[in-house]
Write a structure and sequence with these properties.
heterodimer, A: 283 residues, alpha/beta, 14 strands, B: alpha/beta, 6-stranded antiparallel beta sheet
Chain lengths: 283, 368
């Protein structure tokens, strides 16, 4: 079989294709590519889903279908570790960055560094805050004049609990990346915080990147709306993912998350179609 | 001379001119950690651009330090490799990564060089015992005092690698070239565009280090004092570089002048190493008192004792006498001799179950 290589930048045609076609192209390239990972995975059954155990067992170099200069994120899991590489040349945030001076404040420092690379990719200069140095980080944030914040749930809790007593006046938007159902404590802090702050929740797994934004309903349920660079589908009550983000050196195809969900349905909050995420979900 | 407040006022001057495109990788925004007290200083500046920095590595690992420091290394690495077509990468670890899965993760990543902060690098290698890193060829470390013992530990694990030091600070960034073969671990050649001078040098030429450099195209820092003592060597280096400066340590931390004498952390560690059977951990707090118009030094030995020391009949007296006998305050005089001359008070000894070092292991400091 002819060996094909991914080019560093996504081909322009890829952007115009439907997501289903993008996934098909990804599959074709994965089967024809230099790495034999997907060929061996799908040897007997091309619908075999990729799992966290596969990622944990197969080294990054054997899963990589794109190459170039990048940041390698180390993901620690109970069952071991997974490496993921984000290519610098095409790294972008998976959501709109509605600010000029971003503030990254995550307890997970590997996520912080990934967001740093992606924020640079947006042409913005981020300030990295540290939850263990919260006071000095927030003082620095005020001096810098941060207008948008990117946090994980623990980082958001630190940020929100501090700005409720000492506001960062220019801060307008807060993006919270959560690995599971929105944390109750953060949820309560958000509701206490100034109405001038627009808060967006995103479901994001370390190994996949952002899956989409979450709509929270008053009934303590959440609906996941598919992100731009991701393809979601449901099978037997589990969420499956194809990553269409060209910045990932090892794209995931038919990745079986551990997220229990319903079939695609109408969101109770906004009416758009989404996948319901349950409160008792944990990884 | 520029202080922290002056730098704070200057630090964001270049910000409006930073482009929102690919050139942004040439910049970083950094804050000091605030761990030494006071308001953190925030600076928007260029990352160091010398092509010799970070370019000769394909799989870099940065280890420890503040997240801001590690983020800047990512920018520096990407800037250094900006025109490469190769498959280069950087990974970065901090305290949160000291987990059971780290050893296998690093063995898979297989770094060829490591850039880190001294105490974290030591903590890392004690966490990932017997790690196999067959392609590791260089450890570059700094941010803290590099002791003989630290070098011995890493040399024992990786006998064939090059171990070198870096020097810089959050406010101004890395200030030095990679070390040349003729330098000790405390000697550095400044990067092009970095001017180094000594404030009020003593008879040996030693004094506070001052640095002048551009933060951005529109902001120039003149005579900034990061807080270390040092000197400038008179002779050009054999490698051809004209300027070599030497870093002695942090003012009021690694090097303390009091009562006309100078306490060096390196000498403290050497003396304490002889007493390792009795001491699990230590911190020396020095102070100066004026008696009859003359300064008198005093040393408080804060010690976490081992069971061997506690079994001694008079453990405090034993350790006081042994330390004073071993610790040279001048080239020819021990602390004990200066106590006998009345220049220092007899040393105090305080036994502690645990010594709180904070984010950096401080072995020697001046009493607040």
């Amino acid at each position: 079989m002819e060996q094909k290589k991914f080019v560093l930048k996504e081909p322009p045609s890829m952007e115009k294709l439907s997501k289903e076609k993008q996934v098909q192209e990804l599959r074709d390239l994965a089967l024809a590519g230099e790495s034999s990972f997907y060929r061996s995975l799908w040897k007997s059954d091309p619908s075999t889903p990729l799992t966290l155990e596969h990622l944990q067992k197969i080294p990054l170099k054997d899963r990589s279908y794109r190459h170039g200069l990048g940041f390698v994120r180390i993901i620690h899991l109970e069952i071991g570790h997974v490496l993921s590489k984000i290519l610098k040349s095409v790294a972008k945030l998976p959501f709109d960055l509605s600010g000029e001076r971003p503030f990254i404040m995550c307890a997970d420092e590997q996520l912080s560094l990934e967001l740093l690379v992606r924020t640079y990719g947006e042409g913005r200069l981020p300030l990295l805050g540290e939850t263990r140095l919260a006071r000095s980080s927030l003082t620095a944030g005020k001096t810098y004049g941060v207008d948008t914040a990117l946090c994980d749930a623990a980082g958001a809790l630190v940020l929100l609990s501090n700005i409720s007593t000492s506001p960062i006046t220019k801060l307008r938007t807060l993006s919270i990346l959560t690995e599971g159902f929105p944390d109750q404590k953060v949820f309560e802090q958000v509701s206490k915080t100034s109405k001038n702050l627009a808060v967006n929740w995103y479901l994001s797994l370390p190994e996949t990147g952002m899956l989409g934004n979450l709509c929270l309903t008053t009934k303590r349920t959440a609906f996941l709306h598919e992100g731009e660079k991701i393809h979601l589908h449901e099978k037997d009550g589990t969420l499956l993912v194809d990553t269409l983000d060209g910045a990932l050196a090892a794209p995931l195809i038919c990745y079986k998350t551990r997220i229990q969900t319903s079939p695609l349905t109408s969101c109770e909050a906004c009416g758009k179609s989404g996948y319901q995420i349950f409160e008792n979900y944990s990884r | 001379m520029l202080g922290r407040d002056d730098l704070a006022a200057l630090g964001l001057q270049g910000l409006p001119d930073i482009p929102h495109d690919e050139r942004i990788w040439d910049y970083t925004v950094r804050s000091t950690s605030g761990t030494t007290g006071g308001t953190p200083v925030l600076v928007a500046r260029h990352v160091p651009k010398d092509p010799r920095l970070l370019a000769d590595t394909d799989r870099k690992l940065s280890a420890g330090g503040t997240l801001g420091h590690r983020g800047t290394l990512v920018s520096m690495f990407f800037y250094a490799h900006r025109s490469d077509k190769k498959d280069a990468s950087i990974a970065s670890i901090g305290v949160g990564d000291l987990q059971p899965s780290l050893k296998a993760a690093l063995e898979e990543y297989n770094p060829d060089s490591l850039w880190g902060v001294v105490s974290f690098v030591l903590k890392l290698f004690s966490h990932v015992r017997n790690i196999q890193l067959p392609t590791l060829r260089r450890v570059t470390w700094g941010g803290e005092y590099v002791s003989d013992q630290s070098v011995e530990i890493v040399r024992g694990l990786f006998p064939k690698i090059k171990i070198e030091s870096w020097y810089g600070c959050a406010e101004l960034g890395n200030l030095v070239l990679p070390q040349c073969p003729y330098q000790s671990r405390f000697e550095f050649h400044p990067l092009a565009g970095v001017e180094v001078t000594i404030d009020s040098p003593d008879e040996k030429g030693e004094g506070a280090l001052l640095f002048s450099t551009a933060l951005t195209d529109n902001a120039y820092v003149k005579d900034y004092r990061p807080g270390e003592v040092g000197s400038i060597l008179k002779e050009p280096c054999k490698c051809g570089e004209q300027i070599t400066f030497m870093v002695g340590g942090r003012i009021d931390f690694d090097i303390i002048r009091l009562a006309g004498a100078i306490l060096h952390v390196e000498e403290c560690e050497r003396a304490m190493r002889d007493l390792a059977l009795y001491i699990a951990d230590f911190q020396i707090v020095a102070s100066e008192h004026f008696e009859n118009g003359a300064p008198r030094g005093e040393v408080d030995l804060r010690i976490t004792p081992t069971k061997e020391l506690l079994q001694m009949p008079l453990p405090e007296t034993f350790i006081k006498n042994e330390f004073e006998r071993r610790f040279f305050v001048t080239p020819s005089k021990t602390l004990g001799a200066l106590v006998a001359e009345g220049i220092f008070r007899p040393s105090k000894v305080t036994f502690m179950s645990e010594i709180q070092h904070g984010t950096k292991k401080v072995r020697l400091k001046r009493a607040p």
